[in-house]
Amino acid sequence: MSRLEAWETPFGSESWPSVWVNIERVLKNSLVFVNTKQLFKVEFEIILGLRVSDESYDDNTRFHIERDQPDRCSYIWRDSPWLKQFNIEHAEGAEGGKLIHYVLLGGDYNVEILAVGDVEIYSVTKSQNGI
């Protein structure tokens, strides 16, 4: 059965934080921001796919599945339909790592990332956020 698994992040237990993406011309250089009581910058080593949906209009059934921990904002979706449609073998072979589907459920946007490699999460001040 398909389900969202908790992705342990410093903001993971927050419900509906502000989530947005600073999209760069080269997708892998894009940055994700999560604002709770503090601002976090999430850097993915290699982004291969990105979906951003307005939370108000995102009535997609992909989020109406079982969750191992409800009321969180950060998840990993190991058997997602999007991941199954992606050429996983090619992506993992070309990039040298495991392709993972990350899901951030926000109060303004829902952000999904297909990425390979490390994920770095930094607490930042407004002057450091780069936007």
Tag the structure with descriptive keywords.
mainly beta; eight-stranded mixed sheet; 10% helix; globular
What can you tell me about this protein's structure?
- With 131 residues, this protein is mainly beta.
- Helices cover 10% and strands 44% of the residues.
- It is built from two helices and eight strands, in the order ββββββααββ.
- It has helices at 81-85, 88-95, and strands spanning 3-6, 18-22, 31-35, 39-54, 66-67, 74-76, 99-105, 109-124.
- It has an eight-stranded mixed sheet with strand order 2-3-4-8-7-6-1-5.
- The radius of gyration is 14 Å and the shape is globular.
- The mean pLDDT is 84.
Structure described in brief:
This protein has 131 residues and is mainly β. It has 2 helices and 8 strands. The longest helix has 8 residues, at 88-95.
Strand and helix layout:
Layout: E1 3-6, E2 18-22, E3 31-35, E4 39-54, E5 66-67, E6 74-76, H1 81-85, H2 88-95, E7 99-105, E8 109-124
Parallel strand pairs: 1-5
Antiparallel strand pairs: 1-6, 2-3, 3-4, 4-8, 6-7, 7-8
Query: How many strands appear in the DSSP assignment?
Result: 8
How are the strands ordered across the major sheet?
2-3-4-8-7-6-1-5
Distance between the termini: 39 Å
Mean model confidence by pLDDT: 84
Order of helices and strands: EEEEEEHHEE
What structural class do the secondary elements suggest? Answer: mainly beta
Radius of gyration: 14 Å
